[in-house]
Amino acid sequence: MGLLARLGGWFGAGSITRRRGQFEAAVGILYPLADVAVIVGASVLAFVLHFKLELGPETPYRQIDFFLPAFAVYAMAFVITGLAFHAYRDPDRMSVVVRTYRLITAATLALLATIGAMYFASPGILDFARVLLVFLWLLVIAFTVILRTILGRSLRILAHFGIGSERILILGGGPEALAVHDLLVGYPGPRYTVIGRLQDDDDADAETSIPVLGPLQILRGALIEHAIDKVVIALPRADSELLLEIAGVCGSQRVNVWMLPDHFQLMVSMVGEEQLAGLPLMTINDVRLKGISRLTKRLVDIVTSTLLLIILSAPLLLIALAVWIDSRGQIFYVQQRMGHDGKRFSMIKFRSMRADAEAGGRNWTVADDPRVTRVGRFLRRFSLDEMPQLINVLKGEMSLVGPRPERPEYVERFGREYPRFLERHREKAGMSGWAQVNGLRGDVSITERTLYDLYYVENWSLGLDLRILLRTIVEVVRGRAY
After folding, report:
1. Are residues 299 and 394 in the same domain?
2. Which of 284, 312, 347 is the C-terminal boundary of a domain?
3. Distances in whole angstroms, Cα of residue 377 to Cα of each of 85, 152, 236, 333, 349
4. Measured in whole angstroms, how far is the alpha carbon of residue 96 from the centre of its chain?
5. What CATH number does residue 215 fall under?
6. Do 251 and 119 share a structural domain?
7. Tens-level pLDDT at each residue, the chain (482 residues)
8. How many domains does the chain have?
9. With CB atoms 3.0 to 4.6 Å apart as the test, which of 114, 256, 267, 363 could cross-link to 74 if both were Cys?
């Protein structure tokens, strides 16, 4: 009991947003790891049922070693399919029907992938494994459904101690606000804690029992003072300007937003659908990189950057020598940039300008900049000056794909001048990004580039990353500088 209370103090409602994010990340990784453990158990049990209890046909393959590769393929395919069909996105908030449907879909597609792999690898063993695979399919469905129920109940128990409980702020004071409040309070387990509501005088409802914290104008202060995790918009008469202002304030504090679907058509941000006890809600300012998705992206970054640094070690040494011969001075140019969550880091590039290029102050690079050296011009044309950033990727300061990082002084200025600019820092900066492959490079509209960056943050997928990387390679080969 004491340990749970202490954990509640660390992960719970009173902790800062970062700790809440750590809990969500831990839960996001827990589910797929638990699924893999369940599949291991189901595989062993399916083997026992098939061969030890003689429930399948006679076969010469009576050692479990023969089937370990197939079990590994099944586990990997199940997790990948679960990611594709959102089986790991807030699984404890899904209805039983939706959760079961997604698990059956993942189990079925994983079965087809395993059959295909066995057919091409060893057609003979597949003839004796059909009953085994049917057992595996049925057991995985049964075990994962049971597992989800157990994990959901466990999370509710933890919520009693403040672990994983979300602090909710409602905007509005009419019957809509009361209805949402009742649903949140009545949700199984103390998953949600309604801190209060903000309302203007004309939205007041004397019978609403939700504590009033003040008018809508104090939203930013309320988010900080009460460590709010989510905001629910229950303002049926709100216009688009007000809604966008609310979204901007919440986004700057990395607070997600739920809203009633009547407001959906008024928003320009990426909006996702969710349900709470049957009530349809829309969520905005919600990043796609959570839990296992974030871990997957990081693993891809580590493996890819390591391989590229090894493969390109000789060409990188030649480039370094060419930079030094062409213009004596430092080989690398190290510059402070702003990355994930506003953290500063030292971005590494091959120096492409004269050593004294910034003697008169830092300025934007322009076309045909006279400060660029001969070697530097070639490096920039094919983006070779960016290659040392693979070190930043390996260190975890950057990613292969993400919004391009800016200098801290520009971030401070753009954050004041351009709505939602700071929200692009909700993910790691990238060597290439969605804005860059769509032609928004160099001295371009900050507003337009920000919209592309936010689209990436709110629509991330491994497929989108791959698409951006392939388009980046094409643009680099064409000699279009980034």
Report:
1. yes
2. 284
3. 45, 57, 56, 15, 14
4. 25
5. 3.40.50.720
6. no
7. 444 444 444 444 444 455 555 666 777 788 889 999 999 999 989 888 877 666 555 555 567 777 788 899 999 999 988 887 777 776 666 667 778 888 888 899 999 988 888 888 776 667 667 788 888 999 999 999 898 888 888 877 777 776 777 888 988 877 777 777 777 776 655 677 888 888 876 555 545 567 888 888 889 899 988 888 889 888 877 777 888 888 888 888 888 888 765 543 333 344 454 555 555 565 655 556 666 778 888 888 999 999 999 999 999 999 999 999 888 888 898 989 988 877 899 999 998 888 776 665 555 565 567 788 888 888 888 888 899 999 999 999 999 998 888 888 888 888 777 767 777 877 888 999 888 888 777 666 677 788 788 888 877 877 788 888 888 888 887 765 54
8. 3
9. 114
Residue 183 lies in a domain: yes
Q: Which two tokens stand for residue 299?
A: 């693993």
Q: Do 193 and 310 sit in the same domain of this protein? A: no
